[in-house]
Amino acid sequence: MTEQFSYSADREPASAAQVRALEALLIEKGVITETTVDKVLGYFESEMTPLNGQKIVARAWVDPEFAQLLAKDTPAAIAQLDLPEGMAGAEGEHIAAVLNEPGVHNVVICTLCSCFPWPVLGLPPYWYKDPVFRSRAAREPRVVLSELGVPLADDTEIRVWDSSGHSRWFVVPERPAGTEGWTEEQLAGLVTTESMIGVALANQPSAA
Amino acid sequence: MKLQHNLGGLEGLDSAPLDFEKRVFVQDWEKRIFGIHAAMMALSESLRGALPGYDMDAVPTAFKTIWTWADLRKGAEAMNPFAYFQFRYYEKWLGGITAYFVEKGYLTQAELDAATERYRESPGTALPSSHNEAIDQQVIRYLREGDSPRRGPATPSFAIGDRVVVGNPPTGEHTRLPGYLRGHTGVVQRVFEGNYTYLCSTGTDGLGEPMPVYIVRFEPAEIWGDVAEPNAGPLYAELYQTYLSAHTPKDGDK
User: Is residue B150 part of a domain?
Assistant: First the structure.
């Protein structure tokens, strides 16, 4: 999208200097401390990552009762797992899972901004925030998924969820065939961030 | 309503390639503005009314104003619609957050320009030294406990299965109503337990006071007409009650 606009070579160094200046001044003025930004980033690098979502999905694959509860009362289900403290924290206050099933595929979008279930998936990747994706996925999800290489049958119902309110949605993809007897840990390795937003399927065992 | 309120389903983008960039940050500097934004939300005066009961008086920060998602979104929604597409995601954050601190008087443009110049000349210069555990603790506590907008029991006017029509209120400076749904008819799929407030009053747009929220199911053919995808499945949006009214047959069955 941005390619059609002029892009000065100076753009990144200028922004880098500006954000550094802003952070330095905010520290000097006592708004934040020297360590505040690093602590925020550390929190998202070590605790609130897609690993949490992968574990939730893997449990849903091996435990039908858990999957049922996840669909009905997502926070209650998540609270049963041994995940980092804060799963109902910032941008996780009202997390809601939607489950794929044979013949039904869910896609989560945010046409107004970039709402994303931070504790489950971490921070949103760039494609999710791209205006072209946000625009196209709302009206032509089947074409978009096809362009992204998602093999869906023509009669699979695609359900689109636009995150305009308080809920932060994520998708539980279908369990791939050929994974019978796998441990939750092995299964979690097949679950990508993209599959938990609905623009991919879980990886096949051969690709793991 | 601005273009950025109405991105969903824009026509003419069919041939626009998707930029499937999977990284969260494409430049290191973007991480810093994200961290500043998260800290601002965690130190915001608006948290005085938050459900976790944050003791904001015990947090020795110089930040004494309100900063929420609504403020960040207002910045992006206030932009010239074409400029909105000219800037990358975190560039918009950097512009909006910087302008906020200048506008609120935390720093002057001259201070910022001088400091920016210093960091342009010597990018490796260390940040000023300052330690204050209480500030950082509040920031992490906010990330762990959040700021749920749920307030009081639900007082819904609509029930599951009701047909509802989406209104078309003036957007003012901020809205949570996707433009492409305005004027369209859907069916209530779910009524949330509890009422929900919003981060701020959106004025004539209608948000702010606790109110019911619904998941409304729309049929793409009703929204998009001839340019809907063949065999399209349902589209669900989560809508505040203020945006909805009861469907009456005279509105026309589509």
Answer: no
